[in-house]
Amino acid sequence: MAGERYRSFGLATPAAKRAIAADDAIALMRSGKATKNALLAYGNGRSYGDSCQNGPGAVVDMRPLNRIGAFNAETGLLEAEAGVFLSDIIAHTAPYGFFPTVVPGTQFVTLGGAIANDVHGKNHHRRGTFGCHVESFTLLRSDGRTYTCSATDNARLFAATIGGMGLTGLILSASIRLMRVHSLDIAEKVTRFADLGEFFELAEAADQANEYAVAWIDQLAGGHGRGRGLLLTGNHAEYGSHAASRAGSRFSVPFQPPFNVLNRPFLTAFNAAYRWKKGRSPGPSQTGYQGFFFPLDGVGDWNRLYGPKGLYQHQSLVPENVARQTVPALLEAARRAGQGSFLTVLKRFGSIRSPGLLSFPRPGFTLTLDFPNRGDRTLALLSELDRITVAAGGAVNPYKDARMGADTFAASFPNWQRLEALRDPAFVSSFWLRTAKMLNVRPRRVEAAE
User: Fold this and answer.
1) Which pTM does this prediction carry?
2) Last residue in a domain, options 145, 180, 215
3) Which of 9, 54, 84, 364 could pair with 319 in a Cys bridge, judged by C-beta atoms 3.0 to 4.6 Å apart?
4) Are residues 331 and 384 in the same domain?
5) Which residue segment(s) compose the domain that 300 sits in?
6) What does the radius of gyration of the chain's CA atoms come to, in whole angstroms?
7) Do 303 and 289 fall within a single domain?
């Protein structure tokens, strides 16, 4: 039994029943004896839903593959095994003046997981997705062959693997390009906005002037305060630290309470305190990178606060030309349902195209909402959010999802059949089984390698 070590971060889906070590999986695959739907790579389980779970088979623990190889301190090109955490990459390269070009909201994701989910950060408008900065990777497939994949070598596998949620085989190692920075510290500015209309007026100028931009929304505010929030912008400070701070939790939630602690009274108080604290000093201030990029990493196992039923995260993307109508509609649907979101984040995606076949980001605005799992009530709300998103021509993020329907997935990712054609037959996820495999469409034949 795999147990709690192999759960997804949302805690709303079952833990993996079986797990095997990376070395054992590699030996099995090289022997050519891996069976259909037997495997799925598991990084550090930071996906919120079941894209990192394999109900009928086993997950492959990739974390022991954690060696950093060559690093070119002149060009910022890094080679590392797939199980290396982003926190380790930061610690290794920061003294040389480099930082990962794109980081998500946690540093505790593996390199392979960042590629497989084609993660994005607060600077998509400037740098695109993580996959935009992948030079190459080594992929092992169940035919026993190892493929070196890049934009020019095995290009179809390269595209299918970036954002392919681990379905094309095992990423063993990768070479990525980091960016040179003045320091790790961030010169941060906080701008209050009274409503979403004001946010949309600020967003484009904020993107043009800053490397990083993200908005926090007070989702529970009603009346004249509806849609209010804070726009956080930042750039790497010209003078500051080049030493990575300790990558760990200042404190941890020691156990899972028997109920959801993040209830409406708590969220109302938290939102008021956060808005006051962050908004009281609007002028530029210098802050450490941990607090700016990874604030929740400072609280270990914070997802336990949602209680035994866990949480659902919903991340939608809507085109820019309909965002002013659709984002308020999404927030209003949550308000009508009486559901409070602990973390409500709004960002603008730019036009830089990912090399990934099924990459989630595309031009527009993305809204992220976290909801405690209240059973059918929450599922009904999430379905309504799906409906609003798809009707607007948008998409729902698969690696944040634990329950979207097959039709929503197909509408969000019309190219899904191209990934199915390149999927390694020994690899599948619980997510893929309940979405793509339910669509009952024969995929076009696509050659795996050129």
Assistant:
1) 0.94
2) 180
3) 364
4) yes
5) 186-409
6) 21
7) yes
